[in-house]
Design a protein that fits this description.
By secondary structure, the protein is of the alpha+beta class. Helices cover 53% and strands 21% of the residues. It is built from seven helices and nine strands, in the order H-H-H-E-E-H-E-E-E-E-H-E-E-E-H-H. It has helices at 2-77, 80-85, 87-102, 129-135, 223-226, 260-310, 325-348, and strands at 109-114, 119-123, 145-151, 156-169, 171-181, 195-201, 230-234, 237-246, 251-258. The strands form two sheets. The chain has a five-stranded antiparallel beta sheet with strand order 2-1-5-4-3, with helices on both faces. It has a four-stranded antiparallel beta sheet with strand order 6-9-8-7, with helices on one face. Helix 1 (2-77) runs antiparallel to helix 6 and helix 6 runs parallel beside helix 7 (325-348). The two termini are 38 Å apart. 24% of the residues are buried.
Length: 349
């Protein structure tokens, strides 16, 4: 009974060893495959997001820089009182602004207000003049405004970029600057596949008139996105965020990539891998089980023969034709019992 118990333990150990050495490399290869696949997907998503973010940021930085230079110069040169009363001077200023706008791809609307926020001039879209009057009291040289108003042309709420500055000649004597509706930049804010480009100011106010889960009804970025960099989970979805502050950190350009499809694909790869792993494990288990059973049966046969020799029965031989070490043991056993029988025969004679 003890010998049979020992044989069973050896069989199990042999089977587990065969399974371990057969399946562990496969499991490691599967994990490496999933890791490489996820790594490549993440790298590609990040690279595409960075390229789109840089393109958006650089474009808006250039536009902002061009407009800000004009606004800055006018804030020290524009005589608001003369602009209001002198038609020749007024026409000259308007002509200078018009010449500047002719060289711009994105042509904003020019506004001039007096110190009491009364509109003195508006060239172009007038949908934002009411919103500007509430914006101007907070307008400083560091202020980059994103305002929203009812756009009569589009019949909806539209976002605009207000690049305004106080006119300072000793004291503030008025305000001037430009407004650029987001509709001018529709080509930049269209979704590129799974990538969504976003522009905001430092306060998280989004330059967009669309609805999105990434900002609330007030057009402020939600906290999970505003502070995000890299992977973020929101509304049971996974996203990859690549933010960048440009133009002295006054503008934040970011791209949010929806990576749910990548996660789902990785999940499918894992499931398929587990399925293949289970199938291979089943066949290896059966094959390894047959191998372990065959060898342990040979061991049991050898142990049984040794027990019979131990009890004094030398008239036996083993017929093992396994072609391996067990066959060699069987031949040695037969040689041993043959020698013992020959010694006993000589002893009796």
């Amino acid at each position: 009974m003890a010998a049979v118990k020992q044989t069973k333990r050896f069989r199990d150990e042999l089977l587990h060893t065969l399974m371990f050495h057969a399946m562990i490399p496969f499991a490691i290869a599967l994990l490496l495959l999933v890791a490489v696949f996820a790594g490549i997907g993440t790298y590609q998503t990040r690279a595409e997001g960075l390229a789109l973010r840089d393109e958006t940021g650089e474009t808006f930085e250039k536009v902002y820089d061009d407009y800000w230079n004009v606004v800055y110069d006018l804030s020290y040169d524009l005589d608001v009182a003369r602009f209001k009363s002198d038609t020749v001077y007024r026409s000259d200023i308007i002509r200078q602004v018009a010449d500047f706008l002719k060289g711009q791809t994105y042509r904003g609307s020019f506004y001039v207000f007096d110190r009491d926020y009364n509109l003195l001039y508006q060239g172009g879209n007038d949908a934002y003049k009411d919103q500007l009057t509430t914006f101007l009291p907070y307008c400083t040289e560091e202020r980059l405004g994103i305002i929203y108003a009812q756009d009569a042309a589009a019949s909806n709420i539209s976002a605009a970029w207000a690049i305004m500055r106080p006119v300072i000649i000793g004291d503030i004597i008025g305000y001037e600057g430009f407004v650029l509706p987001v509709s001018y930049f529709s080509s930049f804010f269209r979704q590129e596949g799974s990538h969504t480009p976003i522009l905001s100011n430092v306060y998280g106010r989004v330059y967009s008139d669309e609805e999105s889960p990434f900002w609330n009804q007030k057009k402020d970025l939600v906290d999970s996105v505003r502070r995000a960099s890299g992977f973020v989970r929101m509304n049971d979805n996974w996203y990859f965020v690549t933010p960048q502050k440009v133009y002295g950190e006054h503008i934040c350009a970011m791209v949010i990539a929806d990576i749910n499809s990548m996660f789902n694909l990785v999940f499918v790869v894992i499931l398929v891998g587990i399925g293949i792993f289970a199938i291979i494990a089943f066949f290896i288990y059966r094959s390894a089980g047959r191998t372990a059973t065959r060898h342990t049966e040979l061991l049991y046969e050898i142990i049984d023969a040794l027990d019979r020799v131990e009890s004094g029965n030398f008239d036996l031989s083993l017929d093992i034709r396994s072609g391996d070490e067990f066959e060699r043991i069987g031949e040695s056993f037969n040689t041993m019992t043959s020698s013992i029988r020959e010694l006993l025969r000589k002893e009796r004679s």
